[in-house]
From TrEMBL:
Family: Belongs to the CCDC85 family.
Coiled coil: 12-78, 118-145
Cellular component per GO, a single term: bicellular tight junction
Domain of life the protein comes from: Eukaryota
Location of the protein in the cell: Cell junction, Adherens junction; Cell junction, Tight junction
UniProt protein name: Coiled-coil domain containing 85C
Keyword Coiled coil: yes
KW Cell membrane (keyword) present: no
UniProt entry keywords in alphabetical sequence: Cell junction, Coiled coil, Developmental protein, Tight junction
Chief place of localization: other
């Protein structure tokens, strides 16, 4: 036991003291013990409250962490989807470019063939015009030889020739 001054008394010193002094010391020490126990209880309540707050914060942080991990996973999946979509878009773009180059080549080839055919047809038409002009001259000469430049058959043949020329 301790004395009021805080120094520890030996057994012999305690035996020398009066009974009332010992009771007073005992009561004082009991009161101090009760005060210390109350203080310890209050400290424990504070520690428990603080612990509860920290546990609540930990639970909240775990929930937030879980939500963030789920969002992160969702964003990763979205990134993978968008990357796949981008790859498909690039592939489609290359295919359309190839198709466009192929189509342009075919069209240029066809245009060249059509121009060649048009040139051939124009040459053929020119040959037909020249031949028709020759035939018209021959018909006119034949009509003159028959003798009648104003005969009905020569007018019909000339009008039919002009229809063919046009």
């Amino acid at each position: 036991m301790e004395a009021a001054g805080g120094s520890r008394l030996s057994d012999e010193e305690l035996l020398l003291r009066r009974k009332e002094d010992l009771i007073q010391m005992l009561r004082s020490l009991e009161n101090r013990n009760v005060d210390l126990m109350l203080e310890q209880g209050n400290l424990m309540k504070d520690v428990n409250r603080s612990l509860q707050v920290h546990l609540h914060e930990i639970r909240s942080l775990k929930e937030v962490n879980q939500r963030l991990q789920e969002d992160n996973q969702e964003l990763r999946e979205l990134c993978c989807f968008l990357d796949d979509d981008r790859q498909k878009g690039r592939k489609m773009c290359r295919e359309w470019q190839r198709f466009g180059r192929y189509t342009a080549g075919v069209l240029w080839r066809d245009v060249g063939l059509y121009q060649q055919k048009l040139t051939e047809l124009e040459a053929g038409q020119e040959a037909l015009r020249a031949e028709n002009a020759e035939l018209k001259e021959i018909v006119l000469m034949l009509d003159e030889e028959r003798g009648g430049a104003g005969s009905r058959s020569s007018i019909d043949s000339q009008s039919s020739l002009s229809v063919v020329l046009v």
